[in-house]
Protein backbone atom coordinates (compact mmCIF):
# COMPACT_ATOMS: atom_id res chain seq x y z
CA UNK A 1 0.00 0.00 0.00
CA UNK A 2 2.92 2.30 -0.75
CA UNK A 3 0.95 4.80 -2.85
CA UNK A 4 -1.65 5.36 -0.15
CA UNK A 5 1.11 6.22 2.32
CA UNK A 6 2.67 8.58 -0.23
CA UNK A 7 -0.67 10.31 -0.74
CA UNK A 8 -1.30 10.67 3.00
CA UNK A 9 2.22 12.03 3.49
CA UNK A 10 1.66 14.47 0.62
CA UNK A 11 -1.60 15.74 2.10
CA UNK A 12 0.11 16.41 5.43
CA UNK A 13 3.00 18.43 4.01
CA UNK A 14 3.03 22.19 3.71
CA UNK A 15 3.41 23.67 0.25
CA UNK A 16 7.04 24.62 -0.39
CA UNK A 17 8.27 27.90 -1.87
CA UNK A 18 7.23 28.73 -5.43
CA UNK A 19 10.72 29.78 -6.53
CA UNK A 20 11.20 26.59 -8.56
CA UNK A 21 11.11 27.18 -12.32
CA UNK A 22 8.24 25.57 -14.26
CA UNK A 23 8.90 22.40 -16.26
CA UNK A 24 6.96 21.08 -19.24
CA UNK A 25 4.37 18.38 -18.49
CA UNK A 26 4.07 15.15 -20.46
CA UNK A 27 1.02 16.27 -22.46
CA UNK A 28 1.68 19.99 -22.95
CA UNK A 29 4.19 22.02 -24.91
CA UNK A 30 4.15 25.04 -22.61
CA UNK A 31 5.63 24.87 -19.09
CA UNK A 32 3.37 23.93 -16.20
CA UNK A 33 3.62 25.40 -12.70
CA UNK A 34 5.23 22.75 -10.48
CA UNK A 35 2.70 23.42 -7.74
CA UNK A 36 -0.30 23.35 -10.06
CA UNK A 37 -3.07 21.32 -8.50
CA UNK A 38 -3.93 18.44 -10.76
CA UNK A 39 -6.44 16.59 -8.58
CA UNK A 40 -8.36 18.02 -5.62
CA UNK A 41 -11.37 17.05 -3.55
CA UNK A 42 -13.36 19.28 -1.20
CA UNK A 43 -10.67 21.95 -1.31
CA UNK A 44 -7.87 19.51 -0.41
CA UNK A 45 -5.03 18.95 -2.83
CA UNK A 46 -4.58 15.27 -3.63
CA UNK A 47 -1.98 15.57 -6.41
CA UNK A 48 0.19 18.28 -7.94
CA UNK A 49 2.54 18.48 -10.89
CA UNK A 50 5.53 17.50 -8.73
CA UNK A 51 3.95 14.23 -7.59
CA UNK A 52 5.06 11.00 -9.26
CA UNK A 53 2.66 9.32 -11.72
CA UNK A 54 1.48 6.65 -9.26
CA UNK A 55 0.45 9.32 -6.72
CA UNK A 56 -1.44 11.30 -9.38
CA UNK A 57 -3.16 8.15 -10.63
CA UNK A 58 -3.99 6.97 -7.11
CA UNK A 59 -5.54 10.35 -6.35
CA UNK A 60 -7.66 9.98 -9.51
CA UNK A 61 -8.56 6.43 -8.50
CA UNK A 62 -9.75 7.56 -5.06
CA UNK A 63 -12.18 9.99 -6.67
CA UNK A 64 -13.39 7.84 -9.57
CA UNK A 65 -13.27 4.13 -8.77
CA UNK A 66 -15.32 1.99 -6.39
CA UNK A 67 -14.61 -0.86 -3.94
CA UNK A 68 -15.56 -3.92 -5.97
CA UNK A 69 -15.89 -5.16 -9.52
CA UNK A 70 -19.69 -5.34 -9.47
CA UNK A 71 -20.03 -1.57 -8.99
CA UNK A 72 -17.07 -0.58 -11.21
CA UNK A 73 -17.07 0.18 -14.92
CA UNK A 74 -14.31 -0.21 -17.52
CA UNK A 75 -11.62 2.45 -17.12
CA UNK A 76 -10.50 4.58 -20.07
CA UNK A 77 -6.77 4.94 -19.46
CA UNK A 78 -6.46 7.73 -22.05
CA UNK A 79 -8.99 9.78 -20.04
CA UNK A 80 -7.05 9.11 -16.84
CA UNK A 81 -3.81 10.16 -18.56
CA UNK A 82 -5.37 13.42 -19.73
CA UNK A 83 -6.85 14.25 -16.32
CA UNK A 84 -3.59 13.38 -14.51
CA UNK A 85 -1.46 15.23 -17.10
CA UNK A 86 0.57 12.11 -17.88
CA UNK A 87 1.40 10.15 -20.98
CA UNK A 88 -0.56 6.98 -21.67
CA UNK A 89 2.58 4.92 -20.98
CA UNK A 90 3.14 6.65 -17.61
CA UNK A 91 -0.50 5.98 -16.75
CA UNK A 92 -0.25 2.29 -17.65
CA UNK A 93 2.89 1.92 -15.55
CA UNK A 94 1.21 3.69 -12.61
CA UNK A 95 -1.81 1.36 -12.81
CA UNK A 96 0.55 -1.64 -12.95
CA UNK A 97 2.43 -0.41 -9.91
CA UNK A 98 -0.78 0.19 -7.95
CA UNK A 99 -1.92 -3.35 -8.76
CA UNK A 100 1.47 -4.78 -7.77
CA UNK A 101 1.43 -2.76 -4.51
CA UNK A 102 -2.05 -4.07 -3.69
CA UNK A 103 -3.87 -0.73 -3.94
CA UNK A 104 -5.94 -1.77 -6.99
CA UNK A 105 -7.53 -4.92 -8.33
CA UNK A 106 -8.34 -5.64 -11.96
CA UNK A 107 -10.16 -8.20 -14.09
CA UNK A 108 -11.43 -8.38 -17.66
CA UNK A 109 -15.12 -8.37 -18.44
CA UNK A 110 -16.78 -10.59 -21.06
CA UNK A 111 -15.76 -8.11 -23.80
CA UNK A 112 -12.10 -8.12 -22.73
CA UNK A 113 -12.20 -4.64 -21.19
CA UNK A 114 -10.22 -4.11 -18.01
CA UNK A 115 -12.23 -3.19 -14.94
CA UNK A 116 -10.24 -1.68 -12.07
CA UNK A 117 -11.45 -1.19 -8.51
CA UNK A 118 -10.00 -0.16 -5.16
CA UNK A 119 -8.59 -2.93 -3.04
CA UNK A 120 -9.74 -2.99 0.58
CA UNK A 121 -7.45 -0.78 2.65
CA UNK A 122 -5.21 -2.60 5.11
CA UNK A 123 -3.11 -0.59 7.52
CA UNK A 124 0.28 -2.15 8.24
Report on the structure:
The protein is built from four helices and six strands; from the N terminus they run αββββαααββ. It has 124 residues and is an alpha+beta fold. It has a domain of 82 residues: Winged helix-like DNA-binding domain superfamily/Winged helix DNA-binding domain (Arc Repressor Mutant, subunit A). It has a two-stranded antiparallel sheet with strand order 1-2. The chain has a two-stranded antiparallel ribbon with strand order 3-4. A two-stranded antiparallel sheet has the order 5-6. Strand 1 and strand 2 form a beta hairpin. Helix 1 packs across helix 2 and helix 2 crosses helix 3.
Low-pLDDT sequence parts: 14-25
Provide the helix percentage.
Answer: 25-40%
At the first level of CATH, the class of one domain is: Mainly Alpha
User: What is the CATH homologous superfamily assignment of one domain?
Assistant: Winged helix-like DNA-binding domain superfamily/Winged helix DNA-binding domain
Span from first to last CA? 9 Å
**Strands, count:** 6
How much of the residues is beta strand, in percent? 15-25%
Architecture per CATH nomenclature, i.e. the level-2 architecture of one domain: Orthogonal Bundle
Overall body shape: globular
User: Which value, in Å, is the CA radius of gyration?
Assistant: 15 Å
CATH topology (fold) name of one domain: Arc Repressor Mutant, subunit A
Strand order of the largest sheet: 1-2
**Pattern of helices and strands:** HEEEEHHHEE
The number of helical runs is: 4
Mean pLDDT: 75
> In terms of structural class, how would the helical and strand content be classed?
alpha+beta
Largest sheet: 2 strands, antiparallel
Amino acid sequence: MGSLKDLIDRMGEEEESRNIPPIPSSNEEKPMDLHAVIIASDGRTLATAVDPPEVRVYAWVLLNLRFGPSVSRPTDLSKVALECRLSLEETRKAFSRLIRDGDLKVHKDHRGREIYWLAPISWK
